[in-house]
Structure prediction request, 454 residues.
Amino acid sequence: ALALRDVVKTYDMGTVQVQALRGVSLDIARNEYVSIMGPSGSGKSTLMHVIGCLDVPTSGTYTLEGQMVAEMSENQLAEIRNEQIGFVFQTFNLIPRVSIYQNVELPLVYAGVSRGERRRRTTAAIERVGLADRIKHKPNELSGGQRQRVAIARALVCNPSIILADEPTGNLDSKTGAEIMNILDGLHADGQTIILVTHEDYIAKHALRTVRLMDGMIESDLEAVVS
Amino acid sequence: ALALRDVVKTYDMGTVQVQALRGVSLDIARNEYVSIMGPSGSGKSTLMHVIGCLDVPTSGTYTLEGQMVAEMSENQLAEIRNEQIGFVFQTFNLIPRVSIYQNVELPLVYAGVSRGERRRRTTAAIERVGLADRIKHKPNELSGGQRQRVAIARALVCNPSIILADEPTGNLDSKTGAEIMNILDGLHADGQTIILVTHEDYIAKHALRTVRLMDGMIESDLEAVVS
Ligand SMILES: Nc1ncnc2c1ncn2[C@@H]1O[C@H](COP(=O)(O)OP(=O)(O)OP(=O)(O)O)[C@@H](O)[C@H]1O
Ligand SMILES: Nc1ncnc2c1ncn2[C@@H]1O[C@H](COP(=O)(O)OP(=O)(O)OP(=O)(O)O)[C@@H](O)[C@H]1O
Ligand SMILES: [Mg+2]
Ligand SMILES: [Mg+2]
Prediction:
């Protein structure tokens, strides 16, 4: 489904350069379930942004479904970001002044889905993450874990084939976290590709392969032992 | 050190009322080490905001160091929030357009600390959370876990006697999280009062007492068994 070759991402800070990714090569096939782990600052979110077509590598190539991302048109990229890839951001990135209903509905609006169908899918997504009774709240009228769940609902509402989840349970208690993992496991069983960043071993165990980053490079890339 | 009696916090949403806290009573003595746990949305952050004098209860009383918070002057409250209490927010609440150095320095500026002393204490706090090489970065030029550590450094820079940490390791890998817990354990050994919200049992175990919330009420309040 996707292939990165020698991807480098450097931030130029004037006096110094920060090398967030230092030559990452990675293949992920369709319907894989991959966890990405590594220390704080090791490049996980940067890698996810490259995979999600939200950030351009400084050098190296990224091929998605057989096509070089660097050669795609703006329209193509917009559609990929909105409909093919569902991104749960580490810092949620919700729109502050509108309700969570409108936050979750937005990708469907961009996708040109009809109003009745939008209503049906938006309410279903919000119910699935247990927030039906908070549907009119704005993000700042929610708890941290509730905001995280809105970000998850929004990422899933277009039924994307690739789900990128950057620490989706970081703000959730174990029971609510388990409910979210059930959703992701179910999507994987339905054929989606799941890539999730996590700091927790017990979350990473839901995946079938674990890629570990260290200082912007892949330190290990291991299939899970099926026991 | 602090006493809450029958604290209620209600949010009026027009058509419906959200009862975030439904009558919480709690005593915490000086130099206690308390963890607060409970499901997403159960009222933990709301409780922390009341304790931190950042939010006023709808009813009930809050007494801090023998004085009713409702009777304090604005100046008194400002000093408490800035110098007596160090608050690590669940969503960090950093100032986006200035460097992390300026973010961490700000409480010292408000406290009227001299420039040389501010420099010394700000750099020490930033070094203590392992971010010396990121000192000129702005918050959006940092990883999620790095931002969390800036929020921690800022909360500690005035050497406050009460530390309120709302999920301080949620975005950190286990090694970095352990370093942060070492800092908090050390502060407790020095005599500070530590109150931390966490979803993780192994973090809660650092505390000597665990208060569990459920639907805005205290479900249990237990001293740890020392083994
Ligand atoms: N400004 C607000 N207006 C309306 N409701 C609110 C507001 N802030 C919080 N709430 C509601 O109050 C309840 C308690 O929120 P709080 O942030 O204290 O939960 P929490 O225990 O910290 O949850 P989490 O573990 O997800 O961070 C939630 O159900 C939330 O929706
Ligand atoms: N815009 C930026 N400018 C400069 N440096 C940046 C920028 N964004 C990220 N960095 C740096 O790149 C490195 C990798 O960041 P990234 O967010 O990918 O880490 P991460 O592995 O997701 O960490 P965490 O587990 O803390 O979320 C970090 O050291 C960070 O300071
Ligand atoms: Mg990250
Ligand atoms: Mg909270």
